[in-house]
Amino acid sequence: MRALCWNGTNDLRVERVPDPVLVNPHDVIVKVSLSSVCGSDLHLLGGYVPTMQPGDIIGHEFLGEVVEKGPEVRYLNRGDRIVTVSIIGCGHCGHCRHGESSLCDNSNPKPDAARAAYGHCGAGIFGYSHAFGGYAGSHAEYIRVPYADFNGFRVPEGITDEQAVFVSDAVPTGYMAADMAGIKPGDVVAVWGCGGVGQMAMRSAYLLGAERVIGIDRFPDRLRAAQMKAGAEPLDYTRVDVFDALQAMTGGRGPDVCIDAVGMEADSGANALAKPLEDLYDRAKQAVGLQSDRPAVLRQMIEACRKGGTLSIVGVYGGVIDKFPMGAAMNKGLTFRMGQQNGQRYAERLFGHIAKGELDPSYLMTHRWSLDDGPKGYRMFKDKADDCLRVVFAPHA
Q1: Residue 117 has what pLDDT?
Q2: Quick one: three-class SS letters along the chain?
Q3: How far are the Cα atoms of 71, 165, 169, 234, 378 from residue 32, in angstroms, in the given order?
């Protein structure tokens, strides 16, 4: 089959690879209909995840048809149109039973790297390096899905492929960002990053009761989408001092909730006017290995959030950071909530919102291309060219 493979920093190639096979009686094989790029994939392309190996198939946000199933699969059948949550749970461990599937004890068969880096090992992730299980990704014609009854969800009738594919990752990640922040009616929520996850976090904040939502970015098309599709108040951080703007917009109080939908490759403290040297500092330390991530958004959120407020972090971080203002966070009494998405907890609820017309993530798909255009699609996505929010590949088109 054809698949989009990582072969080094910024080196993607469409290659011929062996078809996947059933390994475990709880597996299914899925014929991939749609597979989307994701902002966290850019960390792989940039070389910030050191456990990638040449030939690894990337991609983790996908929808497809079950074409083969193991003998212990009970819920899914051949011919089912399913969305698979991008982070893999076993369904049986204590974390999975308590809705924390991203912390699964059993789905990562290669736990040593994660344990060495983090002290404990979390779940496996499709197409996301050997630290997260070494699973083949979804930018391919077919993919093996382990623990299929727990990770795969039938798409209800009346919901389109273009809506459903993002229930694999972007929608539950954004929804979880809003949910774990404990948003209350009347809250003001600020979201850093107006890409796919940020868009879904903004819309989800309203679904959970927020009175005002502010979207922070620098790309005009993303800010327009935040305003027109997610209903947020747009804030261009290249034109204003973000801290001053948020204070003015909240009567000097600051947002009740701040959401990080950016992660390890943030720019200039989300505040290019006020801190022109911060981005250079972070990039230099990252380049020589003195820190692995650029925590610009985290610093900005700690500064801007109201006293006693909540920071919700779903942007991906991989390692260590420098110049973290712990004193401000402690003395302001801030609450931090963070983690990879627990999509199995939210999938059915999200299908309900989509069916009722309360949520329509299909606008994230700005480009639908052949898998053969994978390298070009990722270049466009990385460069934010042609008003690209998400490129979605159709491997069998």
Answers
A1: 86
A2: CEEEEECCCCCEEEEECCCCCCCCCCCEEEEEEEEECCCCHHHHHCCCCCCCCCCEECCCEEEEEEEEECCCCCCCCCCCEEEECCEECCCCCHHHHCCCHHHCCCCCCCCHHHHHHHCCCCCEECCCCHHHCCCCCCCECEEEECCHHHHEEECCCCCCHHHHHHHHCHHHHHHHHHHCCCCCCCCEEEEECCCHHHHHHHHHHHHCCCCEEEEEECCHHHHHHHHHCCCCEEEECCCCCHHHHHHHHCCCCCCCEEEECCCCECCHHHCCCCCCCHHHHHHHHHHCCCCCCECHHHHHHHHHCCCCCEEEECCCCCCCCCCCCHHHHHHCCCEEEECCCCHHHHHHHHHHHHHCCCCCHHHHEEEEEEHHHHHHHHHHHHHCCCCCCEEEEECCC
A3: 21, 11, 15, 35, 18
Give Cα separations from 260 to 155, 270, 316, 339 (angstroms). 29, 11, 9, 11
Query: What is the token pair recorded at 7?
Result: 């072969």
Give just the sign of the alpha carbon dihedral 137, 104, 102, 69. positive
Question: What is the CA angle 297-213-348, rounded to 5?
Answer: 95
Residues 158-184: what's their mean pLDDT? 98
Residues 6+ apart with CB under 8 A from 180: 312, 337, 339
Contact assessment for residue 351 and residue 157, using Cβ atoms and an 8 Å cutoff: no
Q: What would the pLDDT profile of 64-121 be if each residue is shown by its tens digit?
A: 999 999 999 999 999 999 999 999 999 999 999 999 999 999 999 999 988 988 899 9
Tens-place pLDDT, residues 21-54: 999 999 999 999 999 999 999 989 988 888 999 9
Q: Which residues share a beta bridge with 84?
A: 62, 152
Q: What value does the mean pLDDT take over residues 363-380?
A: 97
Q: Where does the pLDDT of residue 322 fall: very low under 50, low under 70, confident under 90, or very high at 90 and above? A: confident
Residue 319 predicted with pLDDT over 90: no
What is residue 52's predicted lDDT score, i.e. its pLDDT? 95
Q: How far apart are CA 237 and CA 262, in angstroms?
A: 14
239-261 pLDDT tens trace: 999 999 999 999 999 999 999 99
Phi and psi at residue 188, in whole multiples of 5°? -105, 125
